[in-house]
Design goal:
This protein has about 140 residues and is of the alpha/beta class. It has a single domain, classed as Macrophage Migration Inhibitory Factor (2-Layer Sandwich). A 4-stranded mixed beta sheet has the order 2-1-5-6, covered by helices on one side. It is elongated and about 45 Å long.
């Protein structure tokens, strides 16, 4: 379940970037009710994109902003409440780490869903029921 964290250079140190990514990972697990699930935790992957300051924009102007994108299979965080909870937790995580350097209004998040059968892990295509089985097996 890839997370993409995008921010301008100098906003967060490399250690803070790693802390933010770890916090976002825990937010996904918590909102999905899967804290401690080994299969899910191992498959929350992603990247941290640090761009030159002039390449992170809002209102067509450079801004100290953070963008969080979460990609999921259709079955994950499917309810409005779950989506809202993740977006709030993501903003909380990033805002806390960027204390004083980042305004909450400059934190944007979105959630993108992969269609049924379009999720791949280790070269294997997973449908929704396959993912549910893998998640449940890890919890057992």
């Amino acid at each position: 379940m890839p997370i993409t964290l995008t921010l301008p250079e100098g906003l967060l140190s490399p250690e803070e970037q790693a802390e933010a990514f770890a916090g976002l990972t825990e937010a996904v697990l918590e909102v999905a009710g899967l804290t401690g699930n080994a299969f899910m935790k191992a498959n929350i992957i992603g990247s941290i994109n640090v761009l030159p300051k002039e390449q992170v924009l809002a209102g067509a102007k450079p801004v100290a902003a953070v963008f969080v994108e979460l990609k999921l299979p259709e079955i994950a965080l499917a309810t409005s409440a779950a989506k809202k909870a993740f977006i709030e937790k993501a903003a909380d995580v990033v805002e806390k780490i960027g204390a004083g350097r980042l305004k909450r209004e400059n934190i944007w998040s979105n959630i993108v869903y992969a269609p049924e059968g379009a999720w791949g892990i280790a070269g294997r295509s997973y449908g929704n029921s396959d993912l549910v089985k893998a998640i449940e097996s890890a919890a057992a």
